[in-house]
Write a structure and sequence with these properties.
Layout (H helix, E strand, L loop, with lengths): L1 H13 E3 L4 E6 L4 E3 L11 E6 L4 E7 L4 E4 L3 H4 L5 E3 L6 E3 L8 E8 L3 E11 L21
Parallel strand pairs: 1-10, 2-10
Antiparallel strand pairs: 3-8, 4-5, 4-9, 5-6, 7-8, 9-10
Organism: Cyprinus carpio
Protein name: SLAM family member 5-like
Keywords: Signal
């Protein structure tokens, strides 16, 4: 019995999954960083970022093979030239955000431990500034005492 409970604790310690996604909101045109909560990538770490329910691979860092790549031409080039990876932490940076960037992002970190974080990104459209103009010279405001 003790061996079974110790085994279960050990398995849980090696596989940490955070089911509730972290909500992140930005306005269109801003940059956003999705944090891995890693202070420094270890030499045997494999970090993969996926987007959407189809889990399309959009970025990865493989320290063993020396790979730091973004796959910004997937999904018809939706992220073209706008994805960056922090090579120290593995965090994903999306520049010049668009409303089409809204969705679910998942980072899997495999090394000594396996950890998964999920993010739900919402990109809000930038609101236009209303223009107030006077249509005729008869428009005026007055106040009485």
């Amino acid at each position: 019995m003790f061996c079974l409970s110790a085994f279960c604790c050990l398995c849980f310690w090696h596989q940490v999954v955070f089911a509730d996604p972290e909500s992140v909101s930005v306005t269109e045109g801003e940059s956003v960083t999705l944090q891995t909560r890693v202070t420094e990538i270890q030499t045997d770490d494999l970090i993969t970022w996926t987007f959407g329910h189809s889990t399309t691979l959009i970025a990865q860092i493989n320290k063993v093979e020396g790979i730091v790549s973004t796959y910004d031409d997937v999904l018809d080039g939706r992220f073209r030239n706008r994805l960056k990876l922090d090579d120290q932490t593995g965090s994903l940076i999306i520049t010049n955000t668009r409303t089409t960037d809204s969705g679910n992002y998942t980072v899997n970190i495999k090394g000594t431990n396996k950890t998964t974080y999920r993010f739900n990104l919402t990109v809000y459209a930038r609101l236009s500034v209303p223009v107030i103009s006077r249509n005729s010279p008869q428009c005026s405001s007055s106040s009485s005492s």
